[in-house]
Design brief:
Blueprint lengths: L1 H27 L8 E4 L5 E3 H5 L5 H21 L2 H11 L9 H8 L3 H19 L2
Antiparallel strand pairs: 1-2
Helix pairs in contact: 3-6, 4-6, 5-6
Amino acid sequence: MALMVFLKILGERIANEILMHFRSMRKSSQDVSLSDYIETGADGAPLELMDVVGEDTDLFEQVTARESVRELRAAVDRCLTDQERLVIRLRYGLGGDPPQKQREVANRTGISRSYVSRIEKRALQKLRRELTP
């Protein structure tokens, strides 16, 4: 009697595993590989999906980088004083110019290099607080 119950349970488990296998196969039947051929060129060479889709630059990375720059610029405008904003823009080249050394920023703004350093440190702390979720 116990053997019959065991075989029944075993049979149900096997049937369940088979059904799960077929369900997973059906889900992945729509999957496409980048190395799949999509057509043959005029010269007879196969054209792969990767040839059409593949790029050296990743679109997601480009969009993410642009969004990060936009967020940073908005935070600079939103939470920094005019002096802090000027120091950060000069130091990190946010205005399109190349980044400058603290000594160069000090000469350009007419303040000491150590004061530029303190302003920069304070501004970076504000930006960190503003941009950290």
